[in-house]
Amino acid sequence: MKIAVLARTVRVWLKRDSGQYWPSIYHAMPSPCSCMSFNPETRRLSIGLDNGTISEFILSEDYNKMTPVKNYQAHQSRVTMVLFVLELEWVLSTGQDKQFAWHCSESGQRLGGYRTSAVASGLQFDVESRHVFIGDHSGQVTILKLEQENCTLLTSFRGHTGGVTALCWDPVQRVLFSGSSDHSVIMWDIGGRKGTAIELQGHNDKVQALSYAQHTRQLISCGGDGGIVVWNMDVERQETPEWLDSDSCQKCDQPFFWNFKQMWDSKKIGLRQHHCRKCGKAVCGKCSSKRSSIPLMGFEFEVRVCDSCHEAITDEERAPTATFHDSKHNIVHVHFDATRGWLLTAGTDKVIKLWDMTPVVS
Ligand SMILES: [Zn+2]
Ligand SMILES: [Zn+2]
After folding, report:
1. How far is CA 190 from the centre of its chain?
2. Pick from 77, 158, 90, 172: which is nearest to 130 by CA?
3. Where is each FYVE-type domain found (predicted)?
4. Measured in angstroms, how far is the CA atom of residue 279 from the centroid of ligand 1?
5. Which ligand is nearest to the CA of 306?
6. How remote is the CA of residue 139 from the centroid of ligand 1, in Å?
7. Which ligand sits nearest to residue 276's alpha carbon?
8. Where are the domains of the chain?
9. I need a labelling partner for 9 at 20 to 30 A (CA). Which of 57, 298, 318, 356 fits?
10. Which residues, including other chains, have CB under 8 Å from residue 315's CB and lie 6 or more apart?
């Protein structure tokens, strides 16, 4: 059974005897649908709409009928994310109105709200600690602690040069993954063992969706380039170094172009400053002419390294820690079914694809 939200309709796709999926339900909505959350245990479907409303339905056991339960007037404009939390009977949501809100799914009452710094497009919740993670278009991630009727700002942080497009929380390792329009994924060690932030570079376009396979510790990231990247998160990765500043190349001592005094003294034309991605040293182009992938630092693609680092990196260290797959559509939404190992991707081409990931996610 699959649920698709297309424009103003909600369709429930059931696999027929022929092996093909056909919609069992075709439900018209008053406003275009923008997001949804489905809870399989209760068969509760929460759908966010363009007009700011969240509509809740219960699906029948045979998935042939959906019964409206209630509507929440949650936002002033488009609902961007919705998340139903069964354990607390809460409906969490974010909107185009830059509000985060939570409602009681029993009473339908609004419990509280928080103004985000920009429109949010990532929303995750940790039931145990009641921490909510909100990623927004400004690139900020905000962590709030929710009580029954109020919330406290715990922290906010930034690591991306573009907006946050997706968030994914691993409650076991207590790690948060953020995907961004800057093409990267950052793994934040929220559990605080070391407070590290590790960058994963494996996309040539915006990262649009993330999913985590807890049992195998693999992260699945999908991008606007159609790429599905499966990251092995069992390997110990290192943080990228801080970029060092220097007036001259830290290898050959040639002055960079802004070091006028040294340029004058040595009568040499200044060079452009580059940085080795492995050691962080400020080097000139001539001393960093080679490229290498550094998978253990999250660079699955080749990046600039200085000549000495290039020599030092072994073939073993160059072994990829991710696998790359082409979905052949611009992915906007994913859902991973861990029990079957199936990945569903929905694209801007209005096509829904179902992938058997068992050969790679195992
Ligand atoms: Zn140099
Ligand atoms: Zn180096």
Report:
1. 15
2. 90
3. 243-314
4. 14
5. 2
6. 34
7. 2
8. 2-117+167-241+325-356, 243-320
9. 356
10. none
- Could you tell me if 53 and 41 are in contact, meaning their C-beta atoms sit under 8 angstroms apart? no
Calculate the alpha carbon distances from 183 to 164, 166, 245, 354 in Å: 10, 12, 25, 24
Ligand number with the minimum distance to the CA of 307: 2
Distance 220 CA to ligand 2 centre (A): 30
Q: Is 296 helix (H, G, I), strand (E, B) or coil?
A: helix
Question: 181-226, pLDDT tens digit by residue?
Answer: 999 999 998 876 566 788 999 999 999 999 999 889 999 999 998 9
How far does residue 287's CA lie from ligand 1's centre (Å)?
Answer: 4
Amino acid at 37: S
pLDDT tens per residue across span 115-139: 999 999 999 999 999 999 999 999 9
Q: Which ligand neighbours the alpha carbon of 279 most closely?
A: 2
- The dihedrals phi and psi of 286, each to the nearest 5 degrees, come to -70, -35
Q: Token match 């034309």: residue?
A: 269
